Amino acid sequence: MPAFFLAATKGDFITALTGLTYERAVFFHTWLAILSFSLVTAHVGIVGFYWARPSYDIIPKYPKYVYGIIGYVCFFCLVFGNIAIIRRYAFDFFMLNHRVHSFIMLLMAFLHNDKAKAMIIVGIHLLVLDKVLGRVYGILHSKKSPTKGFSEFELVDDDTIRATVPVKISKTNPNNWYRLLLFKYGTWLAGSHVYLNVKKVDFFQHHPFVIASLPSSGNITLIIKKRNGFTKKLFEKVKAIRDEQLANGINEDVAEHQKPSDPNIVKLKASFRGPSSPKYQPLITFDSVAFFAHDTGASFVLPVCLDLLQTIEKREVLKDYLGRPAHSYIKVYWSVKKASDVLWYNDLITKLTPFINSGKVSITVFVEEDDEMKTIEHNPFGVDSKKISEVVSVESDSFSVSNPTMKYVYEEPMNVSKILQTHIASMNFPEQESYRSLAVLSCGYGSFGEEVEYETSKYRWGKDVPNIYFYNESYNT
């Protein structure tokens, strides 16, 4: 029982100890619960068979048997209330069902058992400790926030929101060993995710999103695609408030930290649990790194890439080459629907621009639709209505995505197999020692990660290929 409760925790404790990613931990939580339910069902079936014999009364005589029956019924509701269709279309019901029935089930299990009470107590307290710590961290973030927990939500596309959560940044090192076991306060590692909650949208749900920014920005930036459930309700809520502000103007009676700077920006009280760190290997040790991103998967890929390049630059200044190659071969392959989608990540790409221009990283963007950037009344980046490939200026306060090593491929889907083949082939140079290790990281919606993993697996244990490490981040939307 402690095992499947620990697998449901949101902190870094269990993932740091086991190396499991969060979605894998939830997978084990689900299947350990199903296994336990199967064993309990067998137990109930055997006991029920003996109760039905003529020598026994049908109705149990002892209270602990009644507790056991109630606990089993609650366990049944937990297992069958967890099916995908309920989670997808009635998440609030799922959460309420999960919390109420799990509490009753655990209480009944405690009263029913004579010799296994310790396991139940340990499991409950570990889960409660995680919940309490997560809540305490959330309150601290909200109280210490420059805007008292109010965050900015902005519609950047027909189905996309950019959320900006101001955070009081801490100068503590997030890489200390003891910080790996706890939520990060005031800082985070590149590629981390948070569990966002907006009570005006959904009181119970904490939805995971990858942080599309680094701590140096002072903000947790989230790129949110409208899907189903929470994201759809959030999009509709923000759109309704924005339309009202455009029609009636900004409410001047609210406090300054609640007042948006622009009628296109909506301010809502938001909280989050986390940040929680990803579980990939240190990328600085690899001779080459290939990043694959699909759509908002760039929320994971771009911060990790930028952090890697900044780390390499710091080590270069110190002339520190221990445990890393002298020259890393780094490439980013990014598939987007429209060319204008890259503007969602204006800040990150602006910071990546010096590394792109110096040839330390190259980015290839595959655009599914060869469209023009549409002129909109409110352009959050201050960019003219030009085709992205024609934007050539590189300024600190403007946006550029056109340079010698940033390539755009229009109306051509990303061919992962061909890209990997070309990337691996380009790692071998006759005049130099061949590169020996390759890290492949991916993030994207749906089965994108599975596709990259499948194509990557073809090159493992092959002849004249590097040692390959693969990591997929699924918390992208």
Automatic annotation (TrEMBL):
Lineage of producing organism: Eukaryota, Fungi, Dikarya, Ascomycota, Saccharomycotina
GO molecular function: ferric-chelate reductase (NADPH) activity
UniProt xrefs under Gene3D superfamilies: Nucleotide-binding domain of ferredoxin-NADP reductase (FNR) module (3.40.50.80)
CDD domains: NOX_Duox_like_FAD_NADP
Localization in the cell: Cell membrane
Domain of life: Eukaryota
Designated name of the protein: ferric-chelate reductase (NADPH)
Family as reported in the entry's similarity comment: Belongs to the ferric reductase (FRE) family.
Membrane-spanning segments: 31-53, 65-86
Native species: Candida maltosa (strain Xu316)
Membrane topology reported for the UniProt record: Multi-pass membrane protein
GO biological process: copper ion import; intracellular iron ion homeostasis; iron ion transport
Reactions catalysed: 2 a Fe(II)-siderophore + NADP(+) + H(+) = 2 a Fe(III)-siderophore + NADPH
SUPFAM superfamilies linked: Riboflavin synthase domain-like
Ranges where the FAD-binding FR-type domain occurs: 133-282
Main location as per UniProt: membrane
GO cellular component terms given for this protein: plasma membrane
Keywords: Cell membrane, Electron transport, FAD, Flavoprotein, Ion transport, Membrane, Oxidoreductase, Transmembrane, Transmembrane helix, Transport
EC number: 1.16.1.9
Broad enzyme group: oxidoreductase
